[in-house]
Amino acid sequence: MIANRWNDAEAQAFVAAAGPGPRARDLALRVLTSRLIGRDPDLVMHGGGNTSLKSTAVDVFGEEVEVLHIKGSGWDLETIEARGLPAVRLAPLLRLRALPALSDEAMVNVQRLNLLDPGAPNPSVETLLHAWIPHRVVDHTHATAFLVLANLPDVAAVTRELFGDRLTLVPYVMPGFDLARAAADAFDRNPDAEGLLLVNHGHFAWGPDAKSSYDRIIAHTNLVEAWLADRRPAPLVPAAALPADRLAPVLAQLRGALASALPDTAHLPVLDLRSGGAERAFCARPDLEDLATRGVATPDHVIRTKTEPLVLRQAAQEAGAMRAAVQAYADRYRAYFDAHAPQAAQPKTMLAPMPGLVWLEGAGIVGVGATAAAARIAADIGCQSARVRADAEAAGGFRPIGPKDLFDMEYWSLEQAKLGSGKAPPLQGRVVLVTGGAGAIGLAAARAFAAQGGSVFLVDRPGAGLEAALAALGADHAGHGCDITAPGAAAAAVEACTARFGGIDILLSNAGAAVTGDIATLDDRVLRDSFELNFFAHLAFAQAAIARFRDQAAGRGLRGAEPGQILFNVSKQAVNPGRGFAAYGLPKATTFFLLRQLALELGAEGIRVNGINADRIRSGLLSDQMIAARSAARGVDPATYMAGNLLRAEVEARHVAEAFVMLARAERTTGHVMTVDGGNIEAALR
């Protein structure tokens, strides 16, 4: 059941923060209930709903005008603010109802022209529907329970059984002017109704104020949920999960196989696996192949998930079989496009014929996207859609809209606009694993790769440092805490990265520590421990990453995108030893040789291996205390010591990070070590 999240104290706080006057109060409460709706994924998910308020505002002439505050494009209900509900003059919107027809382009233009703030975001494509319902507050959701009801073959009979005349049915019409008119006409036929059920689409409810409308949304949804609970069968027993050592190669091979439907130059997609018991049980259903062909739970989903998921039973989870399944999927998608594109009013260009969802037996539901965010959204929708399908089948059958309507939604310009049209960043979708990711250089590099579009996976010791680094990067990045020198730690970290994103494209083997001591008297254990961290950990991570690169390449079956690359943080100590740093320099010199050996052996596979030799970077290796001691020993102040290079300028962690990104983008460079030290002839490789 859906919890009613209204809280009087929270409401009073919102009103107090909004300022004086009834308009401010009403808008504040409208923001609050929008957020309450947005907080529950079983009410709305990733833009699948909108909210509105009819009020008044003062225009540029100082005159009071009636307006519609409506959710703006790009805003999420969970975090919406008042500026995310832009005010549109209501009178022109009401006049539009007298028109016999209106194109999408004209509708959008009228809405934008009547914004009180011309810099505000585009009003929702369902603005007219909200405007033409003559209630002060209107809410629209894609609640899971209502998606089940909306897609039942006997939706009319069940709706009448549950609601009587309190809910009015609107047959499926594509969003826009025609849907707004159909909904307004339905309202006029039953003006005492409490809401609308848009068949195959979603739920509307309204009220005189924000709380009343929100309460009605919750009550309606829970009434349907209770009806479904009485018909829901006992949960299926989840299929046995694939073991981790099997799951990781399958996901990596799947990632490569999915890319086989893309141009040869395209990057591999990012994956997001949901492997809970419910997801694994769903993916073991005997009717999975049939359910996959039925369509989507609500039309908005098609731009995120495509018309159908890819089904992969365990018997087909081998690289060649997965590639064949992806190609068959792409062929079906092309046939779907060829069947409907000629009937479109305007010429259409086919989108990439790659699924947005995979039902992977033994593993769960996999979201697929060009970025981690896109994959997460697809996975969220996929999990909700699985619940809708399962409940609908138990309650009479899942019968969504057909292929023609799906095509119209998928290729609708207003729907495509939700995905954005800007140029993709250069490293979009690349999965970057960074060891020592919570340290100065590691985190700087992680930020730099994220800024270029990479999906970053940090590996470091568990604790507050790693947690803070992940918080700084944001929700669509991830991490793993471990001692990287422990046996099996590298393989486990790469498996964790694969489970989170589907694979790995770039390994930045960065972690290390400067161990000191004169070599003539150095304890054997100290040197061996330094080799474990400063060489053998680099080797272990390289070997684990290479195995995953090869899995991805096997799934793809062709060269296409770069199979993967390795970047090492070496050190100037590898070529310019310093007194007392033998225990650090010796393993670093060995890592320098490892870099060149790997470049030599892996070049034929297209795997590039490069590194950075940095010096005097403020970090855990070079602490403030060490800087002070070295400065004093040389008779200079710390700033002069840190700028002790040819450029007379301190080298910062961000400079090293930028160099790593530069190497990652240098498509024809391998076996190279770039020096980032401000100029130190003794350490030069030239």
Task: Write a concise synopsis of the structure shown.
The chain is of the alpha/beta class and 686 residues long. Helix content is 45%, strand content 13%.
Can you tell me about this structure?
The chain is an alpha/beta fold and 686 residues long. The chain has three domains: 8-229, 3-Layer(aba) Sandwich (L-fuculose-1-phosphate Aldolase), CATH 3.40.225.10; 244-419, L-fuculose-1-phosphate Aldolase, CATH 3.40.225; 431-617 and 647-683, NAD(P)-binding Rossmann-like Domain (Rossmann fold). The protein has 25 helices and 18 strands. The protein has a seven-stranded mixed β-sheet, with helices on both faces. Strands 14-13-12-15-16-17-18 form a seven-stranded parallel β-sheet, sandwiched between helices. Strand 16 (565-569), helix 22 and strand 17 (608-614) form a beta-alpha-beta unit. The protein is globular. The mean pLDDT is 93.
CATH class of the largest domain: Alpha Beta
- Main sheet: strands, sense, barrel: 7 strands, mixed
In spatial order, strands of the major sheet run 3-2-1-4-7-6-5
Examine the coordinates and then state which fold CATH places here, giving the name of the CATH topology of the largest domain.
Rossmann fold
Strand element count: 18
Shape: globular
Any guess at the CATH architecture of the largest domain? Answer: 3-Layer(aba) Sandwich
- The CATH homologous superfamily of the largest domain is called NAD(P)-binding Rossmann-like Domain
Q: Percent range for helical residues?
A: 40-55%
The DSSP helix count reads 25
